[in-house]
Write a structure and sequence with these properties.
Elements lengths: L2 E5 L9 E5 L4 E4 L2 E6 L7 E7 L13 H5 L18 E5 L11 H10 L3 H5 L9 H10 L1 H7 L4 E3 L5 H5 L7 H9 L6 H5 L11 H4 L10 H12 L4 E6 L1 H8 L2 H21 L5 E6 L18 E6 L4 H4 L10 H12 L7
Parallel strand pairs: 5-8, 5-9, 7-8
Antiparallel strand pairs: 1-2, 2-3, 3-4, 6-10, 9-10
């Protein structure tokens, strides 16, 4: 389809010129071959999938559930990192130059702030962030940076009634990030209405504990998440059953979990318009990829990127660290979305 369009100059001394918009959304006039790509004005969005406790381990299906259970996306190892749909997988250092096994509190703080939290406190810290880490999160989190740039952000995870009735003494990095950046906590009502996911997107965790909520297939959950992410400049979803199974589960449980999670991620990519919604998946430390141990590993973690954000990770990919993710995501969003987002 070709349409004519008159663009009027703001200056009264310049004449109006007629242009033609062709079917490729390019603008041209009769005397020039110069083109303006209207797609450059399309708002770019990012969906960050934080999958706790997966690393790039051995390619042995007897010890690595990612190799044994992975289908299209998660069948990755230290030797195999090819992705479908034009994705890029980059090995990402989680040890952060500090001796010992990487842990959740420091790894996630680093991932979501760009600051080396393990070096800041002189050690790897497991579990929940302490006061020093909470201060780092409050000042420098990804949510804080994105919202500070007049863009909008949301956390896709729903919290149960118990969280609001009796606030836990210790809170996770993502919860601290939401609280300090004034990002709304999603509730069970959001989950019921299809505008949120639980940390177990299937809802089996809730159903097993007597909460009346419909179960969801990986495909149904993916559709909900993509629909939510398409309304925000940045959407974060956290999934930590991978780390839980890595610590406490059997190999058979881990393999089944990976197979279902692979379906979920594949469905996210199928539903996403990857020209406008970039998808990035990463982790905080290794664990599930080697079931010979119930401890964390020193393996690098995968960072997988689809969509325009990929170009911000192509250069210097061989030396990627958890400290690199927040700065690159923030830079991508601020460069592409110059106009403030609607609330």
């Amino acid at each position: 389809m070709i349409q004519s369009l008159v663009l009027k100059s703001r200056s009264p001394h310049q004449e109006c010129k007629s242009f033609i918009i062709d079917s490729t959304c390019n603008i041209r006039n009769g005397s020039s071959r110069d083109r303006i790509n209207l797609n450059s004005t399309v708002r770019q969005r990012v969906l960050l999938l934080f999958i706790d406790g997966i690393g790039l381990g051995p390619a042995d299906p007897a010890v690595n559930p990612l190799i044994a259970g992975g289908r299209e996306i998660l069948k990755i190892s230290a030797e195999q990192q090819q992705l479908p749909s034009g994705g890029l997988c980059v090995a990402t250092d989680a040890c952060l130059g500090v001796a010992g096994l990487p842990q959740s509190a420091t790894g996630q703080t680093t991932l979501f702030t760009g600051i080396n939290a393990a070096q800041a406190i002189g050690r790897h810290l497991q579990g929940f962030p302490n006061r020093q880490l909470r201060q780092i999160i409050g000042e420098s989190s990804l949510f804080k940076k994105v919202i500070g740039a007049e863009l909008n952000a949301t956390f896709a995870n729903a919290y149960t009634h118990r969280f609001f009735e009796k606030r836990p003494r210790w809170t996770s990095v993502t919860t601290t990030m939401c609280e300090t950046a004034n990002v709304r906590f999603r509730t069970m009502k959001d989950l019921e209405s299809g505008s949120s996911l639980f940390m177990d997107y299937s809802n089996r965790f809730l159903i097993d504990r007597g909460i009346e909520i419909p179960s969801r297939s990986p495909e149904e959950a993916a559709e909900i998440l993509v629909r939510l992410a398409s309304r925000y400049d940045l959407c974060v979803y956290e999934y930590f059953l991978t780390d839980l199974i890595g610590h406490r589960g059997t190999f058979a449980q881990a393999k089944a979990l990976v197979a279902e999670l692979d379906r979920f991620i594949s469905a996210v990519l199928d539903n996403a318009n990857l020209e406008q919604l970039s998808v990035i998946l990463t982790s905080d430390h290794g664990n599930l990829e080697d079931m010979r141990t119930k401890l964390h590993t020193t393996n690098p973690v995968p960072t997988m990127i689809w969509g325009p954000l990929r170009e911000h990770f192509s250069e210097g990919a061989n030396g990627l660290s958890l400290t690199d993710l927040t700065p690159r995501i923030t830079r991508f969003l601020t460069q592409h979305n110059g106009q403030p987002a609607a609330n």
